[in-house]
């Protein structure tokens, strides 16, 4: 049986593969093949108790052991080194019977090697294909077989000598990195079935071993696909410099994993070949921050329009941005999830730094990879000082923005959709966020494109004051207090407007406002007054309203309103004088009425008065405009009527002229 | 398989037109242009009430001695026109349908890109690649 055959390691044998493989055909191995295969087998079987994952990264374990099975780990590594696609490797393992037998006996192993050779020569993976004479299978960075054609025994020996030099090769890895990187950036994503370009022998010889070895020594698993670039097509490899001998050692030295293709694909993180496309930790944090600025919930999407506006700020051309979007939106749904967003951002950054855009999305930027690599965005990252500082700075404006947003929503008349980027307020909000963030950009160790904040902060200011007035005029329920506006507020720098107005709004409602504009309907006093009163009307009304709102005794208002003009006029200076006294008391009075805001009356009454005068002025202006509007509308009606009359006349006259 | 593929907007101007460079491209442009009339005819023939039920695939629009022209309309009145070589062993209807479906999917992906303004020429590389794959299959 195959067991018997195992005993003959070094002797030419005809592995009756049928025994071990069940349906396998008899293997005819040439001498060269024999040697290679036995070498390989020896190497694979070198590790004791080759269970998956059990082999620690040990050095020199080359001694061909007497174990009769090859460890799955090194075998898997070897197979992967053959650079065949994983499906093919699966097929091969099945065919050679290892799966059935559960182990890689020599027969299975040899059949597998032969199948690998067949596959590498382009033949389909069938048992029939191994019947013919085949070149030796090629294994990148594997041992002697590595880049050889028909057996070259001399090399076999030569490679063994290389083993001791293994450790010194580590130093050359870094050198190789650049080469690898260059190679890879030129062909970043290669499908396993793509025919690999034939690389120059020198590169192949030097970098293959080193690059692969280095990768092998990493703790992460190798992905065979990227190395297809180096797979020689019919290159005669001469003395592969140092590499091959070290490879089996490396192979065994690396972490041994079970031969599972799925894991292979998932652990595809050792891509220092894709350096430009790798997202570093800091970059990742920055992208996540930006994502949050656009969309607070990190697990949901950024819509296309939002993302478009955001990325347009990077000042890349639209076709390029369009292409970046195509690359990064993997599911083509018109929205970006967090990993997609990070990928897009990273591509933009790379492009700005001069890297040409790849043909396809690099593996390090795939959403699955990003999600696996960075499962949770660390909002509370304290990794980098700049970020921790920036974050605290960001949070303040962001909190303000959020509060602002909620308060804005409460104001019914204020059309402030949170997604309305074009709106003044939104841009102001965003600019505050972006401003803070864009400051980070300049400090950011990664030279990123700066997304300038377009609008200055004063937009914010004007917005808040207008909103409050409108709210008052509408006479709605007191809106939820907008957050303290930025220090640059023109009207009341340190005053929390809403706290002041909350008591006054209801008072205003009950007080007096001119009816025509959208003002709260006044009770008895105002309704009795005709519209045409004009300017005085609002002023006078306001004056008593001031009195009304300031003094708890609101009965004053009704008394003040009904008197006719002259009386009101008289009353007005009185009121004005009283008003002067009132603000001082008004603060206290309002404070009395507004218990939850005890701090209000601490605010200077001057400010309150200033606000009230401002309000008054605005009301006046409003009333004036409203009157003007009504007058103009009257005129418009008249003009309409004239026009209708003229048209009628024309109609009547027309039949006469036509004829 | 296809010799020429064109995407025509609702207003009957081309969003994307590509033909195998071997022949005089102008001839294909002309063919596509004339096929638009046939497309319109077929759409109107279905009747307004059947807009929802109208099938997207229009089938063979008209054959010439060298070529056959197939049409496909989306619900937003974007038309795909495909010119196929007659000498090509008769492609089955299903194959043409599947090609149109692929076209439609790629077109949808292009539309999903927020940087694409509807009505612009299609410059998406992914779309190009897909069309190339469809055209190269002949060889």
TrEMBL record, chain A:
Annotated region (Disordered), positions in chain: 169-207, 229-249, 413-444, 469-491, 506-608
Coiled coil spans: 611-652
Gene, per the UniProt record: Reps2
Any GO molecular function: calcium ion binding
UniProt xrefs under InterPro entries: EF-hand-dom_pair, EF_Hand_1_Ca_BS, EF_hand_dom, EH_dom
Domain EH: 33-135, 283-368
Record-given protein name: RALBP1 associated Eps domain containing protein 2
Signal peptide interval: none
Keywords of the record: Calcium, Coiled coil, Metal-binding, Phosphoprotein, Repeat
PROSITE patterns to which the protein is assigned, alphabetical: EF_HAND_1, EF_HAND_2, EH
Any one Gene Ontology BP term: endosomal transport
Domain EF-hand: 316-351
Composition bias type Polar residues, residue spans: 574-591
Entry-linked SUPFAM superfamilies: EF-hand (SSF47473)
TrEMBL record, chain B:
GO process annotations (BP): endoplasmic reticulum to Golgi vesicle-mediated transport
GO CC annotations on file: endoplasmic reticulum; Golgi apparatus; perinuclear region of cytoplasm
SUPFAM superfamilies: SNARE-like (SSF64356)
Lineage top rank: taxon: Eukaryota
Keyword Transport belongs to the record: yes
UniProt main location, coarse: cytoplasm
Pfam families: Sedlin_N (PF04628)
Keywords (A to Z) from UniProt: Cytoplasm, Endoplasmic reticulum, ER-Golgi transport, Golgi apparatus, Transport
Cell compartments where the protein resides: Cytoplasm, Perinuclear region; Endoplasmic reticulum; Golgi apparatus
Known role: May play a role in vesicular transport from endoplasmic reticulum to Golgi.
Subunit-level organization: Component of the multisubunit TRAPP (transport protein particle) complex, which includes at least TRAPPC2, TRAPPC2L, TRAPPC3, TRAPPC3L, TRAPPC4, TRAPPC5, TRAPPC8, TRAPPC9, TRAPPC10, TRAPPC11 and TRAPPC12. Interacts with the heterodimer TRAPPC3-TRAPPC6A.
Protein family: Belongs to the TRAPP small subunits family. Sedlin subfamily.
Protein name according to UniProt: Trafficking protein particle complex subunit 2-like protein
Organism: Nannospalax galili (Northern Israeli blind subterranean mole rat)
Chain's gene name: Trappc2l
């Amino acid at each position: 049986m195959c067991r018997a055959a195992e005993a003959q390691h070094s002797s030419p044998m005809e592995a009756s593969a049928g025994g071990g493989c069940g349906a396998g055909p008899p293997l005819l191995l040439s001498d060269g093949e024999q040697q290679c295969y036995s070498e390989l087998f020896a190497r694979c079987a070198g590790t004791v108790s080759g269970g998956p994952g059990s082999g620690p990264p040990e050095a020199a374990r080359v001694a061909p052991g007497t174990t009769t099975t090859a460890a799955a780990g090194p075998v898997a590594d070897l197979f992967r080194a053959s650079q065949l696609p994983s499906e093919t490797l699966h097929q091969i393992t099945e065919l050679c019977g290892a799966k059935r037998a559960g182990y890689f006996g020599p027969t299975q192993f040899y059949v597998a090697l032969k199948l690998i050779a067949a596959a590498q020569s382009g033949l389909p993976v069938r048992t029939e294909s191994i019947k013919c004479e085949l070149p030796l299978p090629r294994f990148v960075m594997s041992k002697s077989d590595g880049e050889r054609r028909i057996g070259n025994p001399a090399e076999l020996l030569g490679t063994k000598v290389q083993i001791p030099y293994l450790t010194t090769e580590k130093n050359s890895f870094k050198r190789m990195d650049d080469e690898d990187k260059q190679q890879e950036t030129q062909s970043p994503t290669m499908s396993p079935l793509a025919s690999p370009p034939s690389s120059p022998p020198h590169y192949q010889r030097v970098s293959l071993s080193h690059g692969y070895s280095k990768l092998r020594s990493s703790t992460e698993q190798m992905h065979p696909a990227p190395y297809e670039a180096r797979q020689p097509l019919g290159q005669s490899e001469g003395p592969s410099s140092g590499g091959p001998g070290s490879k089996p050692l490396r192979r065994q030295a690396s972490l041994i994993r079970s031969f599972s293709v799925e894991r292979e694909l998932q652990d595809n993180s050792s891509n220092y070949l894709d350096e430009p496309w790798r997202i570093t930790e800091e970059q990742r944090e920055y992208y996540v921050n930006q994502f949050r600025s656009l969309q607070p919930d990190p697990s949901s999407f950024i819509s296309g329009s939002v993302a478009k506006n955001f990325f347009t700020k990077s000042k890349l051309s639209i076709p390029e941005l369009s292409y970046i979007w195509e690359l990064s939106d993997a599911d083509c749904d018109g929205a970006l999830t967090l990993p997609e967003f990070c990928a897009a951002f990273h591509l933009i950054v790379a492009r700005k730094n001069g890297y040409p855009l790849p043909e396809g999305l690099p593996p390090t930027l795939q959403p699955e990879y990003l999600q696996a690599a960075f499962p949770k965005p660390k909002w509370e990252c304290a990794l980098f000082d700049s970020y921790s500082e920036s974050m605290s700075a960001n949070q303040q404006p962001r909190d303000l923005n959020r509060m602002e947003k909620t308060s804005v929503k409460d104001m019914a008349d204020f059309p402030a959709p949170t997604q309305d980027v074009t709106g003044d307020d939104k841009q102001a909000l965003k600019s505050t966020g972006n401003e803070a963030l864009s400051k980070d950009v300049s400090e950011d160790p990664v030279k990123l494109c700066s997304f300038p904040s377009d609008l200055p902060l004063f937009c914010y200011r004007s917005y808040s004051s207008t909103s409050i007035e409108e709210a008052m005029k509408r006479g709605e329920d007191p809106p939820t207090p907008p957050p303290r506006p930025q220090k640059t507020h023109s009207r009341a720098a340190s005053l929390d407007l809403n706290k002041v107005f909350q008591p006054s709004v209801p008072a205003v409602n009950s007080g007096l406002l001119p009816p025509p504009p959208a003002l709260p309907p006044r009770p008895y006093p105002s309704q009795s007054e005709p519209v045409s009163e004009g300017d005085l009307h609002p002023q006078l009304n306001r004056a008593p309203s001031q009195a009304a709102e300031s003094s708890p005794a609101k009965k004053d208002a009704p008394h003040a309103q009904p008197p006719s003009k002259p009386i009101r006029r008289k009353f007005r200076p009185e009121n004005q004088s009283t008003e002067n006294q009132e603000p001082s008391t008004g603060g206290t009075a309002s404070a009395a009425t507004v218990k939850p805001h005890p701090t209000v009356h601490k605010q200077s009454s001057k400010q309150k008065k200033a606000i009230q005068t401002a309000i008054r002025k605005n009301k006046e202006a409003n009333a004036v405009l409203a009157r003007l509007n009504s007058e103009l509308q009257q005129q418009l009606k008249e003009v309409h009527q004239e026009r209708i009359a003229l048209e009628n006349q024309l109609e009547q006259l027309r039949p006469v002229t036509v004829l | 398989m296809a010799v020429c593929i064109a995407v025509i907007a609702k207003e009957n101007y081309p969003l994307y037109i590509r033909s195998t460079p071997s022949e005089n491209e102008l001839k294909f442009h002309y063919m596509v242009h004339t096929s638009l009339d046939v497309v319109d005819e077929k759409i109107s023939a279905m009747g307004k009430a059947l807009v929802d039920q109208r099938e997207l695939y229009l089938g063979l629009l008209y054959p010439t001695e060298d070529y056959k022209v197939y049409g496909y309309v989306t619900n937003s009145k974007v038309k795909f026109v495909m010119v196929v070589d007659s000498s090509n062993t008769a492609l089955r209807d299903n194959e043409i349908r599947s090609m149109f479906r692929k076209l439609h999917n790629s077109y949808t992906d292009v539309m999903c890109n927020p940087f694409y303004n509807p009505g612009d020429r299609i410059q998406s590389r992914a779309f190009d690649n897909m069309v190339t794959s469809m055209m190269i299959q002949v060889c």
